[in-house]
Write a structure and sequence with these properties.
The chain is an alpha/beta fold. It is built from 11 helices and 13 strands. Bound molecules: zinc ion. Zinc ion (ZN) binds next to loops.
Length: 359
């Protein structure tokens, strides 16, 4: 257990015990350390006649590609997104199998390909780099914080925006993030990056992640003790939670369509997947080298405004084609820089999913 950090998160009751000192440590010694700079040469390039870009990145939680309607799951768990003009990536590989690993990794220049936990945690993130290039960044959180990637940047605890109707005792629904997004996008008129960190499908209490109206698949496992439920009940609760994420994401896109005059890029990607009993495994956090694909295949879905595509001379057909190919969390860092038109020596076009789709 001591030698394998990831396995500690496997057994949930114990993960509470192990997590507590870690949190204290994070806000103590580690928080006082200065982060090593990243991309000090970062520059935001502006083209004449091209409007500013608002990029909204949603970091999902514990949603796996296998249950994502847009990616071919037998149940339609993404009915609202299916009606939006989205670009869906069915074959994405995650950097980690838990939030503590995946989130810092997704925002690092190293990624899984050069994975080094210490280096990643002691170096600035993609968000610091974007901020240095002069673009305001806000992290809005309905979960356990940004794991250091937004340290020193504007961050909002979405739970403080919740009202009793969307914040039951079991935790605030992700609707709080929409309130945060609406308020935050009003504050800036130029380029801007907003990250929404979801509670998503955080288990094992999948049934507690969505309001009653989203209980479409029944009966559900209404317990945190998955051992008391049938496989079907677990799937039903998990899929209902995805239905709710689909609603939240589609609402966010509607909000951007209705109230935004800037060019908009919307990226949703989950941090890792989840085992729902396959091979006898539940939850997530197995060591990466032996983790089943259920834990390492998250969905990723984009919505890019027509105006963005036109003004930046992207080919939508090309992006749709690229989406059918394999992708990785490691692509995120370079793709976001590409979308924001930020140049820096740490940007690698080979990892930018859009690089070949600019005319
Ligand atoms: Zn997670």
């Amino acid at each position: 257990m001591r030698n394998n950090k990831e396995i500690r998160h496997l057994v949930l009751p114990m993960s509470y015990l192990i997590s507590t000192p870690r949190v204290v440590f994070d806000t103590g010694v580690e928080a006082q350390k200065e982060l090593l700079p990243l991309g000090e040469d970062a520059v935001k390039n502006n083209k004449a006649g091209v409007k500013s870009t608002l990029l909204v990145l949603v970091v999902g939680e514990t949603v796996r590609a296998a249950n994502w309607g847009l990616s071919g799951y037998e149940r339609q768990t993404t009915p609202n997104l299916a009606k939006q003009d989205v670009i869906n990536f069915p074959y994405v590989v995650s950097c980690g199998t838990n939030t503590e690993v995946s989130v810092p990794c997704m925002f690092s220049a190293l990624g899984r390909k050069q994975y080094d936990e210490k280096k990643i945690r002691s170096t600035e993130s993609l968000l610091h780099l974007i901020s240095r290039a002069g673009v305001p960044v806000t992290w809005i959180d309905n979960q356990s914080g940004c794991k250091g990637v937004c340290k020193g940047l504007e961050s909002i605890d979405a739970k403080t925006l919740g009202t009793p109707d969307i914040c039951p005792a079991t935790g605030c629904y992700d609707e709080t993030l929409l309130r945060g997004l609406e308020a935050t996008m009003k504050k800036v008129s130029g380029d801007q990056v907003v990250v929404l960190h979801q509670l998503g499908n955080h288990g094992p209490a999948y049934y507690a992640r969505y309001p009653q109206a989203f209980e479409k698949f029944k009966p559900v496992c209404a317990s945190s003790d998955l051992g008391r439920c049938t496989q079907q009940e677990i799937f039903n609760a998990y899929d209902n939670a995805i239905l709710y994420t689909d609603y939240i994401l589609s609402k966010a896109i509607d909000l951007l369509k209705a109230k935004e005059t800037r060019n908009v890029v919307f990226i949703y990607v989950s941090d890792h997947g989840e085992s729902l009993g396959e091979g006898g495994f539940y939850l997530h956090g197995l060591p990466y080298s032996i983790a089943p694909k259920e834990q390492t295949r998250p969905p990723m879905t984009w919505w890019v405004s027509e105006q963005y595509i036109k003004q930046n001379q992207f080919s939508k057909e090309c992006l749709m084609q690229r989406a059918k190919e394999p992708a990785h969390h490691d692509n995120l860092f370079h793709t976001v820089l590409g979308f924001m038109n930020i140049s820096t020596s740490v940007y690698d076009p080979a990892w930018d999913l859009t690089a070949k789709c600019r005319k």
